[in-house]
C-alpha cells in the first residue's frame, strides 16, 4: 500500500461528512463522488474538498476563497 492509498478514505468504514461554514464553502470529507452537470465524474484530486456556495469561484464547483474577498469589499 502506498502512502497515498493510506490517506484515502475507506468507502466502507468512513462516512461522508459535509460541513457548512458561515459565509463560506461546504467542506466535504470522505469517500464522495463528484460529478458535473452531464453526470461525468470530476476528479478533485483529494479526499477533502471545499465546494463554492457564493457563486464567484473561478474554479467552480470548488471554492477558491473568493467569498472572503467579497466579504471584505462589502464592509
TrEMBL record:
Q: Quick check: keyword Iron-sulfur in the entry?
A: yes
- Supply the alphabetized keyword list: 2Fe-2S, Iron, Iron-sulfur, Metal-binding
Superkingdom, according to UniProt?
Bacteria
Pfam families (alphabetical): zf-CDGSH (PF09360)
Q: List the InterPro entries.
A: FeS-contain_CDGSH-typ, MitoNEET_CISD
GO cellular-component terms in the record? cytoplasm
Annotated Iron-binding zinc finger CDGSH type domain residues: 29-73
Q: Name one GO molecular function term.
A: metal ion binding
Official protein name in the record: Iron-binding CDGSH zinc finger protein
Q: Which organism is it from?
A: Kribbella kalugense
Amino acid at each position: 500500500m502506498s502512502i497515498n492509498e493510506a490517506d484515502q478514505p475507506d468507502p466502507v468504514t468512513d462516512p461522508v461528512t459535509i460541513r457548512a461554514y458561515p459565509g463560506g464553502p461546504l467542506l466535504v470529507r470522505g469517500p464522495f463522488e463528484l460529478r458535473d452537470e452531464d453526470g461525468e465524474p470530476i476528479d478533485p484530486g483529494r479526499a477533502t474538498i471545499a465546494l463554492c456556495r457564493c457563486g464567484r469561484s473561478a474554479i467552480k464547483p470548488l471554492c477558491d476563497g473568493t467569498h472572503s474577498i467579497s466579504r471584505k469589499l462589502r464592509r
